[in-house]
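**Polypeptide and fold**
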Amino acid sequence: MTERIGVYPGTFDPVTLGHMDIIRRGAKLVDRLVIGVTTNPSKSPMFTIDERMAIVRREVADIAGAIDVVAFDSLLMDFAEREGAKVIIRGLRAVADFEYEYQMAGMNQQINPRVETVFLMADVALQPIASRLVKEIAMFGGPIGRFVTPAVCEEVVARVEVMGRRGS
């Protein structure tokens, strides 16, 4: 029997409770879940890729199942092929996510029809959470503890303080 490998890609800057929900649920669907941490040229990351990988590794350490955290800087379908994945796992929060993800899934299927995209709806309580919004709230000194784990909250707040000192 072949191992079912799934890839859950993202920037995870920072990893949120919404991401963690998808990771927990996605890990139950496959034998091995590869969390692909990538860069997005249209986003300005708060944390380096190495920092994000370390944070994600720490956050998933207690989740049951085989979970690997791997950096990638290539087409998602090339990364999936390299990892031996047959499934891409994507989280959906709202209709706007669906439109973008649907288009991406169609493009990815054209590139590599051997890999399926599986959409998981975010838990209703976690649907509004977005890394971009978490960073914005933190930059203005707002409370982010409802959106990220306590450890991630501390790291984001500390990074905002360092960035504030550099900006002064």
Summary: The mean pLDDT is 92. The first strand starts at residue 5 and ends at 10. Residues 5-125 form a domain with the Rossmann fold fold (CATH 3.40.50.620). Helices lie at 17-27, 49-60, 76-83, 95-111, 131-139, 150-167.
